[in-house]
């Protein structure tokens, strides 16, 4: 049940990002659901591998490289899904930040964050 609530919260966060960040376009709630699933899968698989191998560089940049990695993973996931589009580097960076923050806030309000 918690996984379903997190998935819905992530889809709602993606819809919110499409309204807040110019350059991030989501066609509808169905596309947001699929994109939230793909973003989660990309972050859990490819994101873990990339972050593991870039750990020394992330230390040298005091964690700022993580923002770039997250933006790239966000962009990659939206390229996979039809109905979701990110039009540039800045929208990918701002969109990934906003998506993470909004999803965290929604999940903490609902009560599934950190459990």
How confident overall, as mean pLDDT? 93
**Tally of extended strands?**
2
Structure classification: mainly alpha
General form = globular
Number of continuous helical runs? 5
For the record, the count of structural domains works out to: 1
State the major sheet: 2 strands, antiparallel
- Measured between the Cα atoms of the first and last residue, the distance is 12 Å
The strands making up the biggest β-sheet line up spatially as 1-2
Please estimate the helix content.
Answer: over 70%
Report the uncertain regions.
Answer: none
The Rg value, from CA coordinates, equals 14 Å
Q: Strand percentage, roughly?
A: 5-15%
Q: Would you list the SSEs in sequence order as H and E?
A: HEHHHEH
Provide a brief overview of the structure.
This protein has helices spanning 2-20, 29-53, 55-60, 64-80, 89-110, and strands at residues 24-26, 84-86. The protein is mainly α.
């Amino acid at each position: 049940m918690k996984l379903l609530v997190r998935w819905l919260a992530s889809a709602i966060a993606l819809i919110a990002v499409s309204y807040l960040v110019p350059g991030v376009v989501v066609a509808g709630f169905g596309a947001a659901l699929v994109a939230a699933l793909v973003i989660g899968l990309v972050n859990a698989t490819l994101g873990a591998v990339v972050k593991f191998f870039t750990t020394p560089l992330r230390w040298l940049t005091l964690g700022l490289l993580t923002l770039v990695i997250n933006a790239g993973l966000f962009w990659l996931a939206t390229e996979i899904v039809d109905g979701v589009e990110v039009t540039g580097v800045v929208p990918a960076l701002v969109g990934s930040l906003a998506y993470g923050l909004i999803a965290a806030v929604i999940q903490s309000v609902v009560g599934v964050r950190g459990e």
